[in-house]
Each structure stands twice: as structure tokens, then as C-alpha cells.
Amino acid sequence: MTSVPVTVYVEMTPNPSTMKFVANKYLLISGESVEFHSGAEAKGYSPLAEELFHFPFVKTVFITANFVTIAKNDTISWDFVTMELREFIKNWIAEGKDVLIQMPAPKLKVTDKDNAKPVKEHVPSEYDDAIRSLLDEYVRPAVEGDGGAIDFVGFEKGIVTVALRGSCSGCPSSTATLKGGIENLLKQHLSEVKEVVAESL
Fold this sequence. Notes:
Layout: E1 8-12, E2 18-23, E3 33-36, H1 39-42, H2 47-52, E4 58-64, E5 67-72, H3 78-94, H4 128-145, E6 148-156, E7 159-166, H5 174-189, E8 195-199
Parallel strand pairs: 7-8
Antiparallel strand pairs: 1-2, 2-5, 3-4, 4-5, 6-7
């Protein structure tokens, strides 16, 4: 059996501080995604992410189905590092090294000690499944196309809360997408939806 050579190509995202590295094979099973903000956070979970944090400019590493989205700081231009990162990721996959050993446990939401606000818990509603399926069908493919992910958090009093990750997190155009695209879509299908807001993770 001949092994297919690994190819990785680079895609720009709407977020200028992130770049998407797309492989021709699956890195995680479909529907799973994971994001790390430091090498320490990735330790014991993703050897690939842990190694990527050795690059001094890497801020976050987001891994899903068949791509890795990397956010960098402003110390260096993408022009100087894109090919190096592409080669690194390509070689890592080609050598069959582990991308992810295990999924981190979902983060427990920590209360903001300075403001001492209780953490908002969303009670399941009868509309959750309908909202989830609309997001999965219409929104997720587009968001993944931009190198990010969207997770449904909860629905209460007409407000849908979602969490944006990968290139969508902190992206200048994500607010427009949220309000213009996602909010309109959900309002068209569900008259109960009044607004969509993003929770910062």
C-alpha cells in the first residue's frame, strides 16, 4: 500500500493575525476541535501544538478536522514565517507524529474575581436542538472555511450565546458576521431569536 504524500497549503483568513494551514488528511475526527493558548496548556494533550509554541511569535493554536489555525503576535510579518510553519506542520504529519494524544477536559468557567460576577449557567431550552442544527448546517462550514469554529453555548430570553474560536476569536470582521449573518439566519428560521451574542472564552 503506497502512502499518499502529505500536502499542506496555506489560506489567509479574515483575521489578519491568523493563518490557516490545511492538510490533505484528517488530523482530528470530524466535529472535534481544540484550541491552546500556551505550550504549558498543550502539554500532555497536543505534541504538535506544544512544539508550535516553541516559535516565539505563536499566540494560539487551533486544531480541527483537517487544518491548523495559528494566531501570531505582531513581532514578525507572516511573509517571513508562513513557509517555515507550513513545512513544519507538513513534516510533522508526514512523519506520523501525534497531533493530539487526548482532548483536554472542557474548561471550567472561572468567575472574574475582580468583578465577582457569578458565572452565567445556561439552562437547556426547547430551541437548543433547532439552533444547533441551523448552526451546523449553515454557519459551521463557512466559519471553518475561515479557519475558525463556532460553538453553541445557550439560549435564554431570545438571546443566543455562541463561542467563537480559532481565527474567529478576536477577528475584526467576526462581529459583522455574527450580527449580519448568524443573527439574521437564526431570526429567519426561529421567531423566538432576538439577538446573537458571542461569549469570550
